[in-house]
Write a structure and sequence with these properties.
The chain is of the alpha+beta class. The chain has a single domain (23-389), classed as Penicillin V Acylase, Chain A (4-Layer Sandwich). Helix content is 38%, strand content 19%. The protein is built from 16 helices and 18 strands. The chain has helices at 3-23, 132-140, 144-158, 222-228, 234-237, 242-246, 249-252, 255-267, 290-297, 317-320, 344-347, 381-387, 403-416, 418-429, 431-453, 455-488; strands at residues 27-31, 41-48, 56-60, 63-64, 70-72, 78-80, 84-85, 88-92, 101-104, 109-114, 160-170, 175-183, 186-190, 196-199, 216-218, 330-338, 348-354, 363-366. An 8-stranded antiparallel β-sheet has the order 3-8-9-10-11-12-13-15, with helices on one face. Strand 17 (348-354) and strand 18 (363-366) form a beta hairpin. The radius of gyration is 22 Å and the shape is globular. The termini are far apart.
């Protein structure tokens, strides 16, 4: 084999590997307010990303701008800035275009899953838009539908630079799935209030009713363009099915996508079989709680035919079970609890677990939080904004200063002797989560009274709460690392 042929083979293999990885990233569940136990909108998400990664916890303040200010997109496009942007929480991953999650002061929560499209002739203007899309939504949207409309307008103006993606966008009243295609095509569907949507890494929006603007939104030529490309033939394919028309053929039946979706359906007692054609959304047999979703985000197919570890007796599920809801590439998981009967600073929160959710506690991160412990973030969000696209060369070098690396080391040690240690770890490391769930009602009664007295004092209180709990989780993790290392000596 000559050098040219060898290099070509390497590049092709790399492309295949990247494509395969993109198919297996992230997992989300959206639950309408009439399908939950307490009337909240729930949004569960595991963020999975391969290669060297780290996560910064950032609190971005509300900001004002002078008229004429422009937002410069990553590839050079410009968007007119609004007079002010909202305060929001930002889970930032340096150097990544499609991995960050947000919760803003209005309770709008945003995350996403890669979903490959079949588009091979995308229309892109002024460099297109990719990463900036969700940050613009977080800073400007006051509700989920508002975010969808904003995103749609930007996609039609610039064109989307990724292969394809579904953005999950929720607020205290409703949730939407926004499916984006490489280029200028998109469609969004509202999750029915009494239903649940499960999203692996393929488009789940199917039949669309574009006359129903309360539940569907899209670019104006969604169907006409599919007809033009021969992806949809009205005479034989009626009705129009977005997933079939625009979805990448390699993602719909991908085992990693099918298995994870079925894993969620299994835990939610839907009765679906693994070979069923899963729907966009479904009515759950029982109302869903945040604890149900925490359990789901920790799932490795335990108790099913997909568990090759056989209850950890054969080894670590991370090494044996392939692509899982809680997988080796998971860098954080959250369950957003969005309630419309409280002020957003208290009523909207992320129960956030760093790295692997199965060995870390979900800790309440309220929308009113205005600052994070220095161990969890780089100093200053402005530095983070400036460095996101071109982060410092040492950003992924492990160190003792940033909490994320302790969580990484802990997960690596657990992967070696998972079955032997998981019961003890759950007992010790998740203790704080159990306590916080138990005291949440009484805690929030105090927070509501404090908020009525002074919204600023309430924000200070939830900021101190998260700092205290996050540092406790970090201390517990470091103790667990020492214990695990001793067992390996």
């Amino acid at each position: 084999m000559n050098v040219k042929t060898f290099l070509t083979s390497v590049l092709l293999l790399s492309a295949v590997l990247v494509s395969a990885q993109e198919e297996h990233n992230c997992f989300s569940v959206l639950v309408g307010k009439k399908a939950t136990m307490d009337g909240s909108v729930l949004f569960a998400h595991n963020e999975d990303d391969y290669g060297k990664q780290m996560v910064n916890w950032i609190a971005v303040p509300k900001q004002s701008y002078q008229k004429g200010t422009e937002v410069i997109l990553k590839n050079g496009g410009q968007v007119e800035q609004v007079p002010f942007t909202s305060r929001y929480i930002w889970l930032e991953m340096p150097g990544m275009d499609f991995s960050d999650s947000y919760l803003n002061e209005y309770g709008v929560c945003i995350g996403s899953n890669s979903c490959s499209s079949r588009e091979d002739q995308p229309e892109i203007s002024n460099g297109g838009i990719g990463y900036n899309l969700r940050q613009l939504m977080a800073g400007r949207a006051v509700n989920a539908k508002d975010a969808v409309v904003l995103a749609g307008r930007l996609i039609e103006q610039f064109g989307y630079t990724g292969s394809g993606r579904t953005y999950c966008i929720a607020d205290p009243n409703e949730a939407w799935a926004l499916a984006v295609v490489n280029g200028k095509h998109w469609v969004a569907q509202r999750i029915p209030d009494d239903e649940v949507m499960v999203l692996p890494n393929n488009y789940t929006i199917r039949e669309v009713n574009l006359n129903d603007r309360e539940n569907f939104l899209s670019c104006p030529d969604l169907i006409d363009y599919a007809i033009k490309r021969s992806w949809y033939k009205p005479d034989t394919d009626d009705p129009f099915n977005f997933r079939n028309a625009y979805g990448g053929l390699n993602s719909i039946k991908n085992p990693g996508n099918v298995n994870r979706a079925w894993g969620a359906y299994h835990l939610l007692n839907t009765g679906f079989n693994i070979d069923n054609d899963f729907p966009f959304s479904f009515k759950p047999a029982e109302k869903v709680s945040k604890q149900d979703l925490m359990k789901l985000l920790r799932d490795h197919y335990e108790g099913t035919v997909l568990d090759k570890s056989e209850g950890y007796t054969k080894g670590s599920p991370y090494k044996l079970n392939g692509t899982m809801i809680c997988g080796g590439a998971s860098v954080y998981g959250f369950v957003a609890e969005l309630r419309n009967w409280m002020p957003a600073d208290i009523g909207c929160l992320m129960w956030l677990a760093p790295q692997w959710p199965d060995i870390q506690p979900f800790i309440p991160l309220y929308a009113g939080t205005t600052q994070f412990p220095s161990a969890y973030c780089r100093p200053g969000y402005l530095n983070t904004l400036a460095d996101h696209y071109n982060p410092p060369t040492d950003i992924h070098v492990r160190n003792d200063q940033h909490a994320f690396w302790a969580f990484v080391v802990f997960s690596e040690l657990m992967g070696n002797n998972y079955g032997e240690n998981i019961d003890a770890v759950r007992k010790s490391n998740l203790k704080i989560e159990r306590k916080l769930l138990a005291i949440q009602p009484s805690l929030e009664q105090k927070l509501i009274r404090l908020q009525q007295e002074s919204p600023e004092k309430c924000r200070e209180a939830v900021t101190r709460l998260y700092e205290k709990c996050a540092m406790k989780a970090l201390t517990t993790t470091k103790k667990s690392i020492k214990k695990l290392r001793k067992t390996l000596e």
